[in-house]
């Protein structure tokens, strides 16, 4: 397929996502004019508008390539660009105690979530998928773990369907907890990084709180995502006879995480011109809004009913447990 053909194939869906993004921006401006501030940020509005449209109308084959491209590739580019806002000083400020704590939270959450899944009557393999999806990085973890444990296609579909809906719910609801729990921007960033499913969704969940929350949340989330490699390796060792196979390295360490870390390293070394930092941050924000619209357009809330009550119960209980453990870590380490 030639480049013009690819562009033509993607254009309808990208245009639709852009239209939803502009509508979200317009609504946010109306909020600011009416109330003095936007109570619902542009990112959140883009998700809500996308979900509303998807619930009323299912985009056909003409729109799907561009929507998928916006939700994945453009969002991954936004994550890479965000690396320019992170320096070594921010990373060092986190401290080795928190880095170790993140690893402990992931391990505890996986074990406890697996036990909850089994208590809810899930099969061992489905319980593993839900546990890893909640504890590490949602759909990416499910996709990486599924071939290792030899999961059935219907188990993968059920767990991914629910995490798609629950992930959006977490992004929308989590910012409300910051004032209710009296969390500082840094503390909230840690909480978001430990509980939100995907790296890009951390941007949407932390943006309403502030820049510090975005930086801390993204860093914590990246450390959490990097736990996927050791977890998959451990599963491949304990379940070698279940028909599983080790996924490729690209699935364990996605390219955009390497890009994010590489750009952060360049920023720390002073190799990113200061004049580019503003435009890069603006581009990352614009692409994230567009991608959030695409994410909303890809979520059908009716999928929750089809995923089954036991999966719903196990996933929600697992997520609540993860949140409680994360808050405990924040209090125990005295995160400011």
Automatic annotation (TrEMBL):
InterPro entries: UPF0324_pro
Predominant location category: membrane
Protein keywords: Cell membrane, Membrane, Transmembrane, Transmembrane helix
Topological relation to the membrane, as annotated: Multi-pass membrane protein
Regions crossing the membrane: 38-57, 69-92, 98-116, 128-150, 156-178, 190-216, 222-240, 252-270, 276-299, 311-333
Superkingdom, taxonomy of origin: Bacteria
Keyword Transmembrane listed: yes
UniProt subcellular location: Cell membrane
Family: Belongs to the UPF0324 family.
Protein name: Sulfate exporter family transporter
Organism of derivation: Roseomonas populi
């Amino acid at each position: 397929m030639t480049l013009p053909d690819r562009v033509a194939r993607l254009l309808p869906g990208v245009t639709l996502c852009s239209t939803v993004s502009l509508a979200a921006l317009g609504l946010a401006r109306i909020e600011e004019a009416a109330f003095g501030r936007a109570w619902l940020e542009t990112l959140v509005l883009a998700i809500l508008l996308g979900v509303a449209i998807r619930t009323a109308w299912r985009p056909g084959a003409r729109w799907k390539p561009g929507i998928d491209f916006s939700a994945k590739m453009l969002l991954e580019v936004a994550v890479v660009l965000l690396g320019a806002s992170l320096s070594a000083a921010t990373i060092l400020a986190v401290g080795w105690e928190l880095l170790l704590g993140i690893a402990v939270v992931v391990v505890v959450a996986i074990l406890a979530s697996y036990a909850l899944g089994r208590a809810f009557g899930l099969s061992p393999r489905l319980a593993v998928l839900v546990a890893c999806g909640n504890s590490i990085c949602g759909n990416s973890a499910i996709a990486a773990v599924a071939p290792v444990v030899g999961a059935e296609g219907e188990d993968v579909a059920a767990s991914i369907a629910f995490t798609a809906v629950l992930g959006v719910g977490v992004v929308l609801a989590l910012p409300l907890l910051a004032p209710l729990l009296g969390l500082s921007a840094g503390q909230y960033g840690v909480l978001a990084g430990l509980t939100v499913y995907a790296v890009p969704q951390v941007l949407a969940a932390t943006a309403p709180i502030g820049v510090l929350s975005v930086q801390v949340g993204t860093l914590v989330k990246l450390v959490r995502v990097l736990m996927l490699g050791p977890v998959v390796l451990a599963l491949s060792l304990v379940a070698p006879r279940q028909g599983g196979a080790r996924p490729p390295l690209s699935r364990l360490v996605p390219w955009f995480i390497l890009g994010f870390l590489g750009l952060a390293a360049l920023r720390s070394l002073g190799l990113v011109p200061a004049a580019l930092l503003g435009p890069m941050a603006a581009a990352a924000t614009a692409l994230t809004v567009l991608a959030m619209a695409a994410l909303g357009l890809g979520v059908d809330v009716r999928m929750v009913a089809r995923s089954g009550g036991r999966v719903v119960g196990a996933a929600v209980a697992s997520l609540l447990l993860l949140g409680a453990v994360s808050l405990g870590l924040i209090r125990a380490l005295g995160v400011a």
